[in-house]
Amino acid sequence: MSDAPLYGDVAEGPGEGRAVWLTAADGVRIRAAVWNAAGARGTVILLPGRTEYIEKYGRTAASLAAAGYATLSVDWRGQGLADRPLRDASVGHVGDFAEYQADMTALLAFAASAGLPQPWYLMAHSMGGCIGLRSLMRGIPVRAAVFSSPMWGIVLPKGAGPLVRVATTAARWVGLDHLRMPTTPKRTLVIDAPFAGNDLTTDAGMWDYMRAQAMAHPDLTLGGPSLGWMRAALRECAALAGLPSPPYPMLCGLGRLERIVEVQPIQDRVARWPGARLDLYDGAEHEVLMERPALRDAFVTRAVALFEANR
User: Fold this and answer.
1) Does residue 276 contact residue 288 with C-beta atoms inside 8 Å?
2) 15 has a pLDDT exceeding 90
3) Confidence (pLDDT) at 1
4) The predicted structure's pLDDT at residue 3
5) Domain residues of the chain, as ranges?
6) Average pLDDT, stretch 59-88?
């Protein structure tokens, strides 16, 4: 383990953070970062979504620090500054979502060895919510879990589901699963797409925050997923749907304008998770933590209330 870069100039995290390189059991190098560990009331293990990176959650870490909590976050393999497996590093790729569990194991081992303040809690967005749910089913040592628009199903073009499943499986058979999914971008949308009509946030200030990060440090960014990633993601979502909910207190936040992940699997999961709560945010898109101040503050406040109730 050695020090890694942390781009504090764009993260706007709470004071001095620290980033380190970690090595998963299969030899892949990932990046982890901690903010506000000294004297904290506990640690929030924050799991980003696909294409995301640690710095994107600097403002969230600042909000959690104001409530007395440290934040530990990660660059998953294939994105951020972590190792990328393909020659074309703009393509997000894994062959199996079990690979992310290797990253999670390394992250939790670091949290323990660094003595990060306990109790620990989970906060996971989008793809991080898929990885986080599997981790909870493995029995990771957290007291409660908070999800933001978890990826328990993926929105595909109407009627395209069967074709996507066949195409992604065939790509694996013929050795082409490293290719980018058709119609997906080579670069991050926050650089190339306009704010108007985007499906991430309705807050222009947060859009500018994400865009400034991407422009200043393009090495953090990622384009569309590979055919292999899509196959693995669909398989993992289907596998998780057939399993019982884990025994943790849980809160889920979801924007009413959600267009990236499927809403029905979220509703189904919450309905069969004893004591779970689903909060719907009027006028919010996919990224509740990157939404207008009133919405993201409400979500963080409710998350902290769950943490405080489960100390």
Assistant:
1) no
2) no
3) 79
4) 96
5) 2-309
6) 97
CA dist., res. 74 & res. 304, Å (int): 20
Band of pLDDT at residue 159, cut at 50, 70 and 90:
confident
Assign 3-class secondary structure to the chain: CEEECCCHHHHCCCCCEEEEEEECCCCCEEEEEEECCCCCCCEEEEECCCCCCHHHHHHHHHHHHHCCCEEEEEECCCCCCCCCCCCCCCCECCCCCHHHHHHHHHHHHHHHHCCCCCCEEEEEECHHHHHHHHHHHCCCCCCCEEEECCCCCECCCCCCHHHHHHHHHHHHHCCCCCCECCCCCCCCHHHHCCCCCCCCCCCHHHHHHHHHHHHHCHHHCCCCEEHHHHHHHHHHHHHHHCCCCCCCCEEEEEECCCCCECHHHHHHHHHCCCCCEEEEECCCCCCHHHCCHHHHHHHHHHHHHHHHHCC
Residues 253 and 279 sit within 8 Å (Cβ to Cβ): yes
The third-level CATH classification (topology) of the domain covering 2-309 is: Rossmann fold (3.40.50)
